[in-house]
Amino acid sequence: KDTSDSENSGSSNGSGSGDRVVNVCSWGEYIDESLIDQFEEETGIKVNYQTAESNEVLYSQLSMGGVDYDVIVPSDYMISQLIEEDMLAELNYDNIPNFEKIDDRFKNLSYDPENKYTVPYTWGTLGIISNTAKVQEPITSWSAMFDPQYAGNVLLINNSRDALGIALLYLGYSVNTTDEAEIQEAYQLIADAVKNGVYQGKVMDEVFQKMEGGNAAIATYYAGDYLSMLENNEDLAYVVPEEGSNWFVDAMCVLKTSQHKEEAEAWINFMASTEANLRNMDYIWYASPNAEALETYPAYYEETYGEPLDPALYEIMAPSQEVLDRCEAYLVLPAETRTLYNDLWTQLGI
Amino acid sequence: MSKELIRLRNIRMAFDDEVVLNDLNLYINDKEFLTLLGPSGCGKTTTLRIIGGFTTPVSGDVLFDGVRINDVPPYRRQINTVFQKYALFPHMNVFENVAFGLRMQKRPDPKDPSGKRRVKIPETEIRQRVLEMLEVVSLKGFENRKPDALSGGQQQRVAIARALVNRPKVLLLDEPLGALDLKLRKDMQLELKKIQQQVGITFIYVTHDQEEALTMSDTIVVMDKGCIQQIGTPEDIYNEPKNAFVADFIGESNIIDGVMVRDKLVKMYGREFPCLDGGFAENEPVDVVIRPEDIDIVPMEQGQLVGTVTSVTFKGMQYDIIVDFRGFKWLIQTTDHSPVGARIGIKIDPDGIHIMKKSPYSGMFGDYSSFSEEYEEMSDANWEADEEESEDEK
Amino acid sequence: MSKELIRLRNIRMAFDDEVVLNDLNLYINDKEFLTLLGPSGCGKTTTLRIIGGFTTPVSGDVLFDGVRINDVPPYRRQINTVFQKYALFPHMNVFENVAFGLRMQKRPDPKDPSGKRRVKIPETEIRQRVLEMLEVVSLKGFENRKPDALSGGQQQRVAIARALVNRPKVLLLDEPLGALDLKLRKDMQLELKKIQQQVGITFIYVTHDQEEALTMSDTIVVMDKGCIQQIGTPEDIYNEPKNAFVADFIGESNIIDGVMVRDKLVKMYGREFPCLDGGFAENEPVDVVIRPEDIDIVPMEQGQLVGTVTSVTFKGMQYDIIVDFRGFKWLIQTTDHSPVGARIGIKIDPDGIHIMKKSPYSGMFGDYSSFSEEYEEMSDANWEADEEESEDEK
Amino acid sequence: MKNKLSLFAVPYVGWMSIFVVAPIIIMVVYAFSTAAGDFTLENFARMGTYTAVFTRSFKLAIIATLIALLIGYPVSYMLSKEGPQVQRIAMVLIMLPMWMNFLLRTYSWMSILENNGLLNQLFQQIGLIDLYNQIAMHFASDPAAYVPIDHFQMIGTQGAVVLGMVYNYLPFMILPIYSVLVKLDHSLIEAARDLGASSVQVFRKVILPLSLPGVLSGITMVFVPSVSTFAISRLLGGGTQMMLGDLIEQQFLGGAYNPQLGAAIALVMMAIVVVCMLVMNRFGDGEEQAVML
Amino acid sequence: MALVFVFLYAPIFILIIFSFNAGNSSAVWKGFSLHWYAELFQNRLIMQSVYTTLLVSVLSTLIATVAGTFAAIGLASMRRRWRTPLMTVNNIPVMNAEIVTGVSMCLLFVAFFGLWKAFAVWFNQAQDTFWMEENIYLGFGTLLLAHVTFNIPHVILTVMPKLCQMDKNLVDAAQDLGCTWMQAFWKVIIPEIKPGIISGALIAFTMSIDDFIISYFTAGSGVSTLAMTIYSMTKKRVSPEINAISTLLFGAVLLLLIIINVRESRQERLRERARA
Ligand SMILES: Nc1ncnc2c1ncn2[C@@H]1O[C@H](COP(=O)(O)OP(=O)(O)OP(=O)(O)O)[C@@H](O)[C@H]1O
Ligand SMILES: Nc1ncnc2c1ncn2[C@@H]1O[C@H](COP(=O)(O)OP(=O)(O)OP(=O)(O)O)[C@@H](O)[C@H]1O
Ligand SMILES: NCCCCNCCCN
Ligand SMILES: [Mg+2]
Ligand SMILES: [Mg+2]
């Protein structure tokens, strides 16, 4: 029955009748688009590639209904939540032979302890990006994110988990705390900064244009994207602050409502391949969970560009265990804490 | 002009329970120029629309050539209409407007012996008939103009041509001259009459202008409040109005309360006047109509009545003189000037005195005490205040 | 009524090189009711706007009480205007409309001895004057109505009250009755005249309706093509028109080519007619005006001329009879009926014959051969085709 | 026949009930229910938390509307006095930008207003920023501690958001006012002058009150989209100037999923619009004005 | 006034200028290039959304114009008692904040999808011969429905006045001259209100093209109008391809307007000459 389903679907979402299709929703600036073309060529499956701004926006879209994604790429804590809410389909790993190549470090993680639902896509850290031309003293602490000294020059990250997370980190609390008082304290910290006019804006991928164009001095964002920005603005620096940070894994999963499960698994398999990971890494600068790819990347870089990869950059992309030890992964929060996060986050707009 | 063409029998019409036509009976002869005359809202347009088939009466019959046509749709009646504001098709030029009706027509194919196949009128014939008709209304050369680019009088004539080109048996005209200015209106009146005589069909004409009705009609139907007040030739209506409403509506009239002493003798102001009318009961109260032009001004001592001139207006052809007879003001039209304040006598020939039975309209018209009274009626409120006002003026 | 109030001296006006007023000279006396009469586009409104100060003439002087006021803006002239379509302020009620002018005024403070301080008119006085004025125009009780909720005649009177409440020396009225229907128009004519006499100020009135002009005016100024054709009292203008244009524009006229045999004797149709006019050269060709109502119908053998009746129209007060005299058709208005085709004689009293010098207008008016001729003038093209048409009719 | 024709409206009445009325009913249902579907008033009660967003939205929208009015009225007035040729061209020019997507035009403002944007570059070039620094240093209590600025902060401020609103919605203010002014009977103005009004008085007593319907419709047409925008505040306010629109969007497709609350806020917004409509209907018929769009 | 036009056009000119920028910044000029125009036609996302935008605009304009015209005729011939409340409902989408319209329609669709799914699941369980799609999504269909819905009122509002201005007797006259009323409808009413229909269609098309908010809530993830694409692009790196496409569209509109205006004024001149 499954096969017949996927055949007569497709037509409902305006993506051509009878064709094999997969609807992918990922993050913005998160793929080497030539991979899509290659996949389509190789398999004849058409990819409708869409993006969502953040885990929370993706969750809103899924809950609201009416969207027809097959493959999504949420982060660790969001995956837990989706599993909890029974929105993900179990994968048939037989169709994903490349799963083998994933480093064991990234298998059976807490969000998917039995690894039934996910194939990791990338991993990395959250950190502070600063423009050294505008900020003279070196930045080492999350305090820079709340410092009125930089009023109007700081960009707050535009999702509740990361934004409250850095405040919790700065205050020395766990990013996974459920203590309302601690969370309120973190909220207050941000709210005060907002009141003091510290933030020029709340951004997700808008950060590229802001930081590359020198329109802001300090931002919180992800390591991989920092490396992309660096290509366009050499003044930028990245640091995983001394208080520690978040390290994340984004993984590909398939929605329960998916009508194109086979195509979805084909896509996941393709994206898990070493070649795809190398090319993607080279393009988006996020570290791959594919052990082979991650290991051979410096060589791949040198081969491609004729110069060696700066080890400092490699370190930022795929930080050493020592750095990761300072970092904490997000865990799914209990429902009432999530509601609190949502409420506080909405109030923060004020 | 004797054959009966249309008959309205016991027509009743109401909109939302408001009775608009009340038991109307009327017949119209072939080739007649019949005018429906009456004040605004009296039901003229409604009557016309019933004849044209645009409105269905609540009850009663419409007969055409003896056949009941109540349920025949407008486009199947041999009747055409010239609408109040012409209703020319603004997106078509004059030619197309006039040709419209012909293009709609189908008639038995002359080439089909069974006579069942119906074909359109060939373009050459249409062209010829339209041009012919435009010539009748003196609009040759205007074929390509759009209605916007025509003067009111020209539009008027296009509307007539558009109706006539279909060779209807009856032409209905709803105040076709209402929008034109005085001079043009007068010319068009004569023109219309001429066209009617030329094409020799029945015209049913609606107007609220009494002069227009008098000028053009063979028969005038005076209406008020959905009822026919009088039917007759212009002369009948003018000279022998049936009631005060008709008398006042058709021309200026002095209407005075009188008492019929006996046949051919009426008493007004306590004095007896010989007249030509009879057939009333002895001492029956009546309305006496005296037309302003039927009154002669004579030296005081020769006058049947004596009054004081209160106002004189030069009107070109004549003077309009208001004369006060014991508080009742008469309008007299004469070519002789009398100064304001003069005491004058008047004389009325017996044939200038028209006697009418009392009617619901008695006492409502025919006094020239205050010219403002008439428009006061139009103001929809504050009647009392206005009344006071006119009292003061006297 | 003798003091001169306004004088227009050599006024010339042009729009885009199109001359609209050509060397206009006119004086207007105090308390006079003066009417500018003429066909559409002859420059009446323009003249009025020059007096009101809304337009500045190209050359010439406007004098008010002997003072040149060319450059005085409208609101500083002691002149108020009643506009063609009233121009009532739709957002104000009747009271506020009338009070508008008073609220705009400032006058020396009576409490300030230096007389320099200027204050507004106190509300109580405004109230009193407005109510007074509303009473004059019979609109007491309408204070709170918005203009939309008034009939045409009432709006008209508000416009007059609004102008008069400022106690101007002169009131300008531009076809104020144009939008009203016939009956109401006649009433308002008399009303306006009454108001003018009551308030005792100068009215300068614009109309293209000759009857209106005759009814109301002390002086009529007949204009055509930007030039004054004649100035005079209604009687002068009607009885002694200066040229064919005036004769035709003011009432119906038969205008016949004639030759002045000598003083008091004119020759038409080869026959001599006694008349009252003189002062022409011997054998000077002239235009002879004969008013339709000045012609008496007499038995053939008694007639000065003999003709054939070609058309008879009943008009209520009289019959309009068209009589053919050797191809030239006369209009005769008479109370006696003559059947179509009858040969009749006519007689004209010497005082019914008016002699005019030949003018550029000679031959253009005064023939009733074809009633259609007059509106033919309005059609802007195909003159030739129409001409042919009327040729055929003869 | 008349009634036969009115049958033409039947399909549309059906359509309206499904696509206009039903959605609103569903929205009301959402607004009064919990995520589980029980009846609640809590969504409205919680709105108290967002008073600041309401206040800000109203404040910015009112300011934007006023500015648009202050610019739009004189422009319409001057335009209505121009010759017909000028009027036509000017109208086309005013409408033309509307054919370019408003997001693009707003985005373009971003590149102008950025800290390192075109305007700041310009100010840098002409020395305005240096001048400001000198003056500020001069007046600073401790000139040594004065930190010179290298740009004027424009993006991310309320000013920028207001500018975006004025920019986007100004034509909606100009058009209705203009079309009322053009139709104004000139003889009314002459009549007022004739009655002694000076030009200021003519304007105050006649032109202004008569153009009020246009002004009101302009105000509504600027105020409603301003108070409900989310794109403009997002782009030019940098997400720190949250407006009612952002608040709603966030509950549906944004980072704080709560459609019940979103529906409640949307309902309140609709109430605001209804009030605007009622006010407008009182002064003139709304049908006509909407046409001028 | 000139300042107002500078204000209105400055951003547009900047947008246009930077469409020719060699660099990828919209603030730093790196020299002239047509690079982004070439790139534009390679960009699947942009081309696809231009296509979607045009398609949805054209289709919704067509549907709304036809439906709106009929509705307007129906409404105009209704009694006042009925017409007034219907016109009030008609005005809701015009007056309402777009976000409210968008959100409420989104809720409607989602609610309908829910019902549909329940039904389809039941149906599929009940029988085995025909499998009915259980999940339906927001997409082009819902986008089109939304556009039609907000376009119809605009068409009605432009057609209505024309109908009211129309001489009530025209239809009578046509019938009088031999038309059945269907013929009268096509030969008289439609030509008569044609200007209203055309400008209604124009307004509808403009509204569709310019709409972002309602599309945003009703198009779902699968399709994207140009406005939506731009919006999502402003959330990332904006590529000057967008400047290029808007320059092209703007140029097209400008050209169209110039042609229309030139033709109009030429016709006017001809008419004037004819009159003189
Ligand atoms: N369709 C209608 N619905 C309701 N009332 C109507 C309708 N048509 C006419 N009436 C009413 O019927 C009465 C007679 O109207 P009708 O049009 O026949 O008057 P009329 O004599 O032609 O007046 P006018 O001279 O003003 O044209 C009026 O009171 C009018 O208000
Ligand atoms: N503002 C103007 N610009 C150009 N021509 C004008 C203007 N005002 C009037 N005219 C022309 O001047 C001439 C006289 O116009 P005016 O308005 O004085 O005529 P009128 O006698 O009042 O006519 P009507 O009886 O139609 O009101 C007309 O030919 C008119 O076209
Ligand atoms: N360009 C956007 C990349 C997003 C990376 N995902 C980070 C998830 C952190 N929780
Ligand atoms: Mg009627
Ligand atoms: Mg005039």
TrEMBL record, chains B, C:
Enzyme class name: translocase
The reaction(s) this protein catalyses: ATP + H2O + polyamine-[polyamine-binding protein]Side 1 = ADP + phosphate + polyamineSide 2 + [polyamine-binding protein]Side 1
InterPro entries: AAA+_ATPase (IPR003593), ABC_SmlMolc_Importer (IPR050093), ABC_transporter-like_ATP-bd (IPR003439), ABC_transporter-like_CS (IPR017871), Mo/tungstate-bd_C_term_dom (IPR008995), P-loop_NTPase (IPR027417), PotA-like (IPR005893), PotA_ATP-bd (IPR017879)
Annotated GO CC locations: ATP-binding cassette (ABC) transporter complex
UniProt KW Iron-sulfur keyword: no
Any one GO molecular function term: ATP hydrolysis activity
Domain of life of the native organism: Bacteria
The EC number(s) this enzyme carries: 7.6.2.11
Keyword Cell membrane: yes
This protein's UniProt keywords: ATP-binding, Cell membrane, Membrane, Nucleotide-binding, Translocase, Transport
Matching SUPFAM superfamilies: MOP-like, P-loop containing nucleoside triphosphate hydrolases
Gene3D superfamilies per record: 2.40.50.100, P-loop containing nucleotide triphosphate hydrolases
Domain ABC transporter per the UniProt entry, residue ranges: 6-250
Family from the record: Belongs to the ABC transporter superfamily. Spermidine/putrescine importer (TC 3.A.1.11.1) family.
Function, as annotated: Part of the ABC transporter complex PotABCD involved in spermidine/putrescine import. Responsible for energy coupling to the transport system.
Subunit and partners: The complex is composed of two ATP-binding proteins (PotA), two transmembrane proteins (PotB and PotC) and a solute-binding protein (PotD).
NCBIfam families: potA
Protein name: Spermidine/putrescine import ATP-binding protein PotA
From TrEMBL, chain D:
Chief place of localization: membrane
UniProt-listed CDD domains: TM_PBP2
Membrane-spanning intervals of the chain: 12-33, 53-77, 89-110, 160-181, 202-224, 261-280
GO CC aspect terms: plasma membrane
Record domain ABC transmembrane type-1: where: 54-280
Localization: Cell membrane
NADP recorded as keyword: no
A Pfam match: BPD_transp_1
Keywords: Cell membrane, Membrane, Transmembrane, Transmembrane helix, Transport
Membrane topology category: Multi-pass membrane protein
UniProt record, GO biological process: transmembrane transport
Family: Belongs to the binding-protein-dependent transport system permease family. CysTW subfamily.
Protein name: ABC transporter permease
Species assigned in the record: Dysosmobacter welbionis
TrEMBL record, chain E:
GO CC annotation terms, alphabetical: plasma membrane
Transmembrane residue ranges: 51-76, 97-116, 136-160, 212-232, 244-262
SUPFAM superfamilies: MetI-like
Pfam families, per database record: BPD_transp_1
Record CDD domains: TM_PBP2
Xref: PROSITE patterns: ABC_TM1 (PS50928)
Membrane topology designation: Multi-pass membrane protein
Subcellular location: Cell membrane
InterPro entries membership: Bact_Polyamine_Transport, MetI-like, MetI-like_sf
GO biological process, one term: transmembrane transport
Domain ABC transmembrane type-1: 50-260
Alphabetic keyword roster: Cell membrane, Membrane, Transmembrane, Transmembrane helix, Transport
Annotated family: Belongs to the binding-protein-dependent transport system permease family. CysTW subfamily.
Name of the protein in question: ABC transporter permease
Taxonomic placement: Bacteria, Bacillati, Bacillota, Clostridia, Eubacteriales
